[in-house]
Amino acid sequence: xxxxxxxxxxxxxxKLSVDTRTxxxxxxxxxxAVTASKKGxxxxxxxxxxxxxxxxxxxxxxxxxxxxxRSEVTTADGLGGSGSPHPVxxxxxxxxxxxxxxxxxxxxxxxxxxxxxxxxxxxSAVTEDPRQNVELTEDEIRERMSGNLCRCGAYxxxxxxxxxxxx
Length: 167
Known about the structure:
Blueprint (H helix, E strand, L loop, with lengths): L1 E8 L2 E8 L4 H8 L18 E4 L2 E4 L12 E3 L12 H8 L9 H16 L18 H7 L10 H12 L1
Parallel strand pairs: 1-5
Antiparallel strand pairs: 1-2, 3-4, 3-5
């Protein structure tokens, strides 16, 4: 069964008709030709498909597109302004926080979401005192980014990049 959906992708309203079983990732890639989010495992285990949905990070392979009607979807392409990368993207480049680059869009979106979560005071599994402001230590960054895998093993550089972006 097809349903009309309007997605606001990277600041642009896009109308489409989707099968009710279509994931947000497939709608983005196959119907809208928005390929910043990558299909890795297609089971929510690798994080390559991470996008921001109304400002919160989600795994686009696990979200049905029909549930996103009239939502704001931000991919890695929509993080920075015109010709100006987001500070997280800039830091990933400066610290060589990527090798093959396949996971990088998901890493960048997840990092932006992580920064917003920490700023809002959301604790993680390693937060020492959830009643205090969250300090994004290396352990906090690793824990909060643990849902985004990098097959190349660029983790030390990714953490260094995110430490810089926090500053």
